[in-house]
Amino acid sequence: MARKTVLVCDNCGKEVGDNKGAALRITYTDARRGSKVADLCDDCAGDLPGRAAARRGRRPKAVAV
Asked: What pTM value is reported for the model?
């Protein structure tokens, strides 16, 4: 018998499809409190405040126009 894992958004409760959604990790500055993780759908993840994190690695070459 096969099993299927269904991912549900922690914010709105909708089912998150395959290759969709995001995991939000909150890390407190006080290490004793640990951290929390929330699974979110694309709609809820886009509505959250915050800034984009810098991507790691080399920058791509400039495309000649």
From this structure: 0.65
Is the pLDDT assigned to residue 62 strictly greater than 80? no
Q: How far is CA 14 from CA 2, 3, 49, 51, in A?
A: 23, 20, 20, 25
Give the count of domains, the chain.
Answer: 1
Q: What is the per-residue DSSP string for 1-65?
A: ------EE-TTT-PEEPTT--EEEEEE-SSGGG-EEEEEE-HHHHHHS---PPPPPSPPPPPPP-
More reliable by pLDDT, 63 or 54: 54
Residue 52 lies in a domain: no
